[in-house]
Design brief:
The protein is an all-alpha fold and 129 residues long. It is 66% helix and 0% strand.
Length: 129
């Protein structure tokens, strides 16, 4: 949730309110912010001992592909670019809320459990003989 909140604040600071529906060209800073959020969510998904961060990272990947599509195909209609950028945010919020709720339910039912996958130490010696 912190990564999503930081991305929201960065988006608001990138003159979000001055866009006025102008999605004719690539929104460079939004693409950078979405790319950074994708990296953070992917790292979390790889380390977390939960399914929902993987879903969240996948939704963010879809949002990032929209910027890639606009880069490759600059004639992508402005309305399509705008809708496709915004449509992924609501499912992301829903998945975050659902995952958080499920985590709270598991703790109530089963007690505390590890949030992160255990780190495995590399073997310094060969296989047993």
């Amino acid at each position: 949730m912190l990564a999503q909140a930081v991305a929201l604040i960065l988006t608001l600071l990138s003159r979000f309110s001055h866009v006025y529906g102008d999605f004719v060209s690539l929104k460079f800073w939004w693409a950078i912010i979405d790319g950074l959020l994708l990296m953070v969510l992917t790292l979390i998904a790889l380390r977390a001992d939960r399914l929902w961060p993987i879903i969240l990272a996948g939704l963010q990947l879809s949002a990032s592909f929209v910027h890639l599509a606009k880069t490759i195909y600059p004639d992508l209609p402005a309305s399509g670019y705008a809708v496709l950028l915004q449509m992924w945010s609501w499912p992301m919020l829903a998945v975050t809320a659902w995952g958080t709720r499920q985590h709270q339910k598991r703790i109530r039912c089963f007690g505390s459990e590890p949030d992160w996958k255990a780190r495995h130490q590399p073997q310094l010696h060969g296989p047993p003989e």
